[in-house]
Design a protein that fits this description.
Distance between the termini: 35 Å
Helix content: over 70%
Largest sheet: 2 strands, antiparallel
Radius of gyration: 30 Å
Structural class: mainly alpha
Shape: globular
């Protein structure tokens, strides 16, 4: 790292002073909607949901951009990135003043949000001017630029009342542009940037910058910052609205009193940095969380009337927090949150001096996301509970979780260091496992540094038990992913019944979009396990399912919810679809070749069963009040019983949280599976990668596409059959056939099985076409239904057989391409490429979830029926059968001799292993 000892104080003070001043202006711009948004809401007649989205959009952009801006700061220097970021945000803010419609305002708000991303730039820039022992104070002073929120609350109402909200946007944009120019003129490049320029050294790549994000501690810091900063931003945006509606204040007074929270939550951040330098960040965090718990408990308590039946009659009294105690409580809360913000960022330059931009950007991004998500959650809590103080109840739960996690993590690390005197422990004991060398790699049981599944003795001794544990934790995580991914197919079918007036084409778009986003995400997810590790990635990807689950539960309760919100939720459901690629890639590393087919079939087949589970469970839970008052009121149905459609999303939340915990505490990483993206990207040069993408699209693409479109197609083609009570059987048949027939491919060969699968699928599609053409005849629906069951069964068998082919293909292909490599090195390369190909083919095939429902919709719109789409599918299956036969299963094909026992792929050679003492 660069040496800052020789720097003149003037350079340090100028860098810190200009950065802090610039961040203050940026923060004022970032929170501009907390004031002008109230007037915009009134002018445009926005609903609460639309207002919340408008206020939150800049916070979202400012959060998501932080990780990239932080990395670019480390690569190109803070002076350049800071200036360009401010100019871009100023331009967007100025253009906002010319917006006259809600969509255009949302677009401008995205650009305004860049002002919030400047935080990651400033943190990385300022930290490079100060030595470790002074970075806490320096970064605390810089972070005091949060006071910009108070500047907006104090000044913007006066400008708004006098000249209108457009003038506020123009003045704030002009000040930010001038600030950017002054910053560029008065500052200089940081010492690290200067040193690189002199030596000609290239900056570290983005992947190298992201390396520390694999550490659990980084994500724990992100949770801390989600509260101390995310909740600060959320309350800064929410308090004017809260004060106006709860205490009946006007906008000027509400803005002034909200500043009583924003000012201490900003200015005292510098003091928090000093305390962290002097006493340690951990002590400051304990104080922050402890006092916040107390304040939030008092703020959470709603106004309540009590009646006690006394001896001489009832005794009545009430409890409520008046305005003055409320302002005092939020002042104290803001003060301690400011200390916590500085304490969190004290850790980062100390422990990740070469990755301040990336780590600081991630932590800042998660914190900023709190500023976006929490106001939306506050509104949802108000709607669900009808209690104004529910926002503080939510924050109470959040800080309790953060404090418990911190405490148990600290205690765990201290117990590991019991043999040392306390004075010998590092300043932050919870971080010592990263920074102290480990004498024995196996001490961290979550990472398997010795993994030899092809070694029979190792497999029987302990390998099988570990692999089976990871498999049976992976299965429920994947099942839930498929449930959330495909839940939209049932929700969409019910939307017209509860008052959503959408056309057939619009409904098919909603059914198709999760497939589009899920397939696209799979492309990225397929490479994540070797980069981040299967344990961490499974945990995060499973937890991400709560986002669409909560969103669905909230949006369907109001028939006035705009169509674009449903489009966004449909895309978010794709988070579940992306999980399949990483899950299959992860499990493929755990099992030997002779068991891969069955293991992958179980993981995928039982995971695919999530579609059937969802289609069975959701129609039941939407008919009852599963969550009582917390779950919201039912939606009236014309001529029928009321429905709780929100339960289609809410029902998965507890299971997602349980599975997330199981993944984190029960799964393992395999050290030998680690690889960079560039290592895995070689699969794009492999011809068989693209051939298997084509074939797997024919099997899995059909399974997931038919699963998404079957409920709506059945309902439209046979409206009198009440088919929704039966459609879950299709995905169930496909999932069970995949899980139950993996051994068939292991025994007879995947290529032979795949060829016959496509022939059966051609026959089944022909049967579907026949019964659709004769749907007026008795029993036509059941014939149609039986043909689809055969089709689902065939896709399940084909899903297992195609994945069984990939490892065998790559073992032979690597032997041909790299004949001079030792056998074990060939195997390791084949395993890594097989895992990447499995993930990538699943990504391409998943587009079937988009194209099949969309093809139905387009066919119906163009011809009046789905037959044209089905004829296209039949021709495609004929092409898949021809490719399978010609390339793999015919005499002379790649797998013909292997599947008949006449040729043996490369086998592992015994190698010496060094076991830890």
């Amino acid at each position: 790292m660069h040496d800052v000892a020789e720097m003149r104080p003037g350079q340090q003070y100028r860098a810190l002073g200009m950065s802090t001043g610039a961040f203050t202006i940026c923060f004022a711009v970032w929170t501009i909607f907390s004031i002008i948004g109230i007037q915009i809401k009134e002018d445009l007649g926005l609903s609460e949901a639309e207002f919340g989205l408008l206020v939150g959009t800049p916070i979202l952009t400012g959060s998501l951009s932080r990780i990239f801006l932080g990395i670019w700061t480390d690569q190109y220097g803070g002076r350049l990135v800071y200036t360009l970021t401010m100019l871009a945000a100023a331009a967007a803010t100025f253009l906002l003043s010319y917006a006259t419609s809600y969509p255009v305002m949302l677009l401008a708000a995205l650009g305004v949000g860049l002002a919030g991303g400047s935080f990651a730039v400033g943190i990385a820039y300022v930290s490079k001017f100060y030595p470790t022992e002074k970075q806490g104070t320096a970064l605390g002073i810089f972070g005091a630029g949060n006071v910009g929120a108070a500047v907006t609350k104090l000044l913007a109402p006066m400008v708004l009342v006098a000249f209108g909200w457009t003038m506020v946007a123009q003045v704030w944009a002009g000040v930010l542009a001038i600030t950017a120019i002054i910053f560029w003129i008065t500052t200089e490049d940081d010492p690290e940037r200067k040193a690189r320029r002199q030596t000609g050294e290239k900056p570290r790549s983005m992947l190298m910058q992201l390396e520390p994000l694999k550490n659990q501690q980084v994500w724990r810091f992100a949770l801390y910052y989600f509260f101390v900063f995310g909740a600060f931003v959320a309350l800064a945006l929410w308090l004017p609205h809260y004060l106006i509606d709860v205490y009946g204040l006007d906008i000027k007074t509400a803005g002034l009193l909200a500043a009583a929270y924003s000012i201490p939550a900003s200015l005292f951040r510098a003091y928090g940095g000093h305390l962290s330098d002097k006493f340690g960040a951990r002590k400051v965090m304990y104080a922050t969380f402890g006092v916040s718990l107390l304040c939030l408990f008092m703020l959470s308590y709603p106004e309540t009337d009590y009646v006690i039946h006394g001896i001489e009659g009832p005794i009545e009294f009430s409890t409520s927090m008046e305005l003055v105690p409320f302002v005092i409580a939020i002042f104290v809360l803001g003060f301690f949150m400011s200390l916590g913000k500085a304490a969190v960022y004290k850790h980062i330059p100390v422990y990740y001096p070469e990755h301040v931009g990336a780590v600081g950007g991630l932590v800042g991004m998660i914190g900023g996301l709190g500023g976006f998500l929490l106001p939306i959650a506050f509104g949802a809590m108000n709607d669900l509970t009808g209690i104004w103080t529910s926002c503080f109840m939510l924050l109470f739960a959040l800080v309790a979780i953060a404090m418990l996690w911190m405490h148990f993590a600290v205690r765990q690390m201290e117990r590991k260091a019991m043999g040392k005197r306390l004075s010998e422990l590092p300043e932050f004991p919870e971080m010592q496992d990263i920074h102290e060398p480990k004498a024995h790699p196996e001490q961290k049981s979550a990472t398997l540094s010795d993994w030899r599944p092809e070694d029979d003795e190792f497999w029987e001794d302990k390998g099988a038990k570990i692999a089976q544990r990871n498999l049976w934790i992976s299965i429920p995580c994947l099942l839930l992913a498929f449930s959330v991914w495909m839940v939209w197919s049932v929700v969409v079918a019910k939307l017209p019944a509860i008052g959503f007036d959408y056309s057939t084409d619009e409904l098919f778009w909603l059914a198709a979009l999760p497939g589009l986003s899920g397939a696209t995400l799979r492309i990225f997810y397929s490479f994540m396990v070797p980069i981040f590790g299967g344990r961490l990635w499974t945990t995060l990807s499973t937890l991400s399912l709560t986002i669409p689950a909560f969103g669905i539960g909230y949006a369907v309760q109001n028939p006035e919810t705009p169509y674009f919100i449903f489009l966004a939720l449909a895309l978010l459901c794709g988070l579940g679809g992306g999980n399949f690629a990483s899950s299959m890639a992860n499990i493929s590393f755990f099992f030997p070749k002779r068991q891969k087919g069955n293991a992958l079939a179980l993981n995928a087949g039982l995971g695919n069963a999530g579609v059937s589970v969802m289609q069975f469970v959701v129609p039941i839970v939407i008919t009852m009040s599963v969550f009582g008052a917390v779950g919201g009121d039912p939606q009236p149905v014309a001529g029928g019983d009321p429905l709780w459609i929100q339960n289609a999303g809410f029902i998965w939340i507890p299971f997602i949280l349980i599975s997330t915990a199981l993944a984190w505490f029960g799964m393992n990483d395999i050290a030998s599976s680690k690889a960079s993206f560039s290592d895995q990207a070689v699969i794009f040069q492999r011809r068989h990668n693209w051939i298997m993408c084509f074939l797997y699209t024919g099997t899995f693409g059909s399974f997931i596409g038919y699963s998404a479109g079957f409920p709506l197609l059945s309902n439209i083609a046979f409206p009198e059959a009440n088919s929704l009570q039966y459609v879950f059987l299709g995905p169930l048949v496909g999932a069970v056939s995949r899980a139950a027939t993996g051994w068939v491919s292991d025994k007879w060969g995947g290529a032979r099985v795949t060829f016959w699968v496509f022939l059966v699928m051609i026959i089944a599609v022909g049967g579907v076409l026949y019964f659709l053409g004769n749907k007026d005849q008795p029993g036509a629906f059941w014939g149609f239904f039986a043909m689809f069951m055969l089709l689902f069964f065939a896709t399940g068998v084909g899903n297992a057989s195609t994945f069984q082919m990939i490892p065998i293909i790559m073992r032979k292909e690597i032997g041909r391409l790299m004949p001079n490599l030792p056998a074990n090195d060939q195997l390791r390369n084949a395993e890594k490429e097989s895992a990447a190909i499995i993930g990538f083919t699943s990504a391409i095939a998943a587009y079937g979830a988009f194209f099949i429902p969309k093809s139905y919709g387009s066919s119906i719109a163009a011809t009046g029926g789905p037959e044209a789409a089905l004829w296209g599918f039949l021709i495609f299956y004929a092409a898949c059968a021809a490719v399978t036969w010609f390339v793999y299963s015919r005499r002379g094909g790649m797998l013909h001799d292997i599947e008949r026992g006449r040729e043996t792929p490369v086998q592992p050679e015994p190698e010496a292993t060094t076991q830890p003492a």
